[in-house]
Design a protein that fits this description.
It is a single chain. This protein has a 6-stranded mixed β-sheet with strand order 9-10-11-12-13-15, with no helix packed on it. The chain has a 6-stranded mixed β-sheet with strand order 17-18-19-20-21-22, with no helix packed on it. It has a 5-stranded parallel β-sheet with strand order 1-2-4-6-8, with no helix packed on it. It is mostly beta strands. The longest helix has 14 residues. It starts with 13 loop residues before the first strand and ends with a strand. It has 3 helices and 32 strands.
């Protein structure tokens, strides 16, 4: 039989290492020259029982891997970031797959498990890895067809499947775990079937082209009432997943953890008066969100709730909120105006860190704690008035345009380098010596007493 090779034929090297040391040498050499290659870990390496942690990580040129029957374990992150890995053949000896083994393998289109493997299978030529005993799909790709015997979609199963546009989930599925479809940037529509009774957090993080979310009408736990393009937990009225097309219905009580995170096409959204909680990371990374009005009934804004909302220009925190949580508005680089109510007692770590266009901030006298990095690198901030009896961490480092800080009669705790970047520190009459004892010597010349 003749082999005809034309002028445009590409020959891809197939490497069959004969020892583990040769395997490591091949990986190192291939990573250096970045040429496409296949790896066949055949039985010539009889000692190969385990594929070690991180060993193929960032092998961008690896396009195919054949894992022989002798391999029993693939350790954590073994093939992570192999962005051009297109197909995987796994032998019948594999018993254990670690954490994020094939995470960020965005080019994956073919997955096969050898028949006879007692732990894993790819039944019905589904192009996926399924845990046989509990029918949990643990790794999928854009070619996956979920069999109607699967009952659970595991955590991060389709993470970063960038070519996945839609997926048919059979009625056999009862659970979808956390981050299941995160980073599927071209996923456009999603239907939650009637028997899904448990959905983890953050299932659509970074799915910025998602425009349609529907829950089956006869689902007993979740709904998408009023064609809202969201998933709502019916009993608690928590909105657990949304998209740029979501219209939050009246009656929703909470915007749940990371419900809109990474929704970079979301420009504005109306929050109804029924909402009392905006949870952790709810709008994190919504970089086009420029306008949002928080209803007066909201009493809790979670950590990182609006972190990285780089188009947000102003925010009014409602009366009733007592704590501005960690990184709640960190990196909101267009934010120029913030209204903090007198109900707030704590401004937590990094709450407004990196809000580089924030020019002034009014801290109410109710505030008792301003924690580390709360206003760090707010480089446009020019004037700050610190309330009485406050406990302060290193909150204003990097505020290099801070011209004036006005300190009260007494602060309970203050970091000695707190205002190292400030030009003038104004203190009450006869309080200069008090603050010189608490601030570093480099700040002493900046201290000015108010005239009596």
């Amino acid at each position: 039989m003749a082999l005809n090779i034309g002028p445009n034929t590409k020959l891809i090297p197939i490497f069959r290492p004969q020892s583990i040391s040769e395997l490591k040498s091949i990986i190192s050499e291939r990573n250096t020259n970045n040429k496409q290659w296949h790896c066949d870990l055949c039985e010539i390496v009889p000692a190969l029982k385990e594929i070690n942690r991180n060993i193929f990580m960032y092998c961008h040129s690896l396009s195919h891997i054949n894992i022989p029957d002798c391999v029993e374990e693939i350790d954590d992150f073994a093939f992570m970031y192999c962005s051009n890995l297109a197909s995987i053949n796994i032998g019948k000896g594999l018993k254990d797959i670690g954490v994020a083994v094939f995470r960020q393998c965005s080019g994956l289109i073919g997955i096969t498990i050898a028949e006879g493997n007692p732990v894993f299978d790819s039944r019905d030529k589904c192009d996926a890895i399924i845990e046989t005993k509990n029918n949990t799909l643990i790794l999928g790709c854009c070619s996956t067809k979920i069999p109607n015997t699967v009952t659970k979609i595991g955590g991060a199963t389709f993470c970063n499947c960038i070519d996945l546009e839609s997926i048919n989930i059979p009625d056999s599925v009862t659970e979808i775990d956390y981050f299941a479809f995160s980073g599927c940037i071209n996923l456009k529509s999603f239907i939650t079937p009637k028997n899904v009774v448990k959905i983890g957090t953050s299932i659509f993080v970074g799915c910025h082209n998602l425009a349609s979310i529907i829950v089956a009408n006869d689902n007993p736990v979740y709904d998408s009432r009023n064609n809202c393009n969201a998933i709502i937990e019916t009993q608690t009225n928590k909105l657990i997943a949304g998209c740029a097309s979501t219209i939050i219905p009246e009656g929703v009580s909470a915007i749940w953890i990371e419900a809109f995170e990474g929704c970079t096409n979301l420009k504005s959204i109306a929050i109804p008066n029924s909402v009392t909680e905006i949870s952790m990371g709810a709008f994190k990374g919504c970089s086009l969100l420029s306008n949002i009005e928080i209803p007066s009934g909201v009493t809790s804004i979670g950590p990182r709730a609006f972190e990285g909302c780089t188009s947000l220009t102003s925010i009014v925190i409602p009366e009733g909120v007592t704590t501005i949580e960690k990184s709640a508005f960190e990196g909101c680089t267009s934010l120029t105006n913030v209204v903090i109510p007198e109900s707030v007692t704590i401004i937590n770590e990094s709450a407004f860190e990196g809000c580089t266009n924030l020019t002034n901030i009014s801290i109410p006298p109710s505030v008792t704690h301003i924690r580390n990095r709360a206003f760090q690198n707010c480089s446009s901030l020019t004037r700050v008035v610190i309330p009485q009896n406050v406990i302060m961490g290193l909150a204003f480092a990097g505020c290099n345009n801070l011209n004036e800080v006005i300190l009260p009669e007494f602060v309970k705790i203050i970091d000695k380098d707190e205002f190292r970047d400030c030009k003038t520190i104004i203190v009450p009459t006869k309080k200069a010596s008090h603050y010189r004892k608490r601030l570093s010597t480099s700040s002493h010349s900046k201290i000015k007493e108010l005239e009596p």
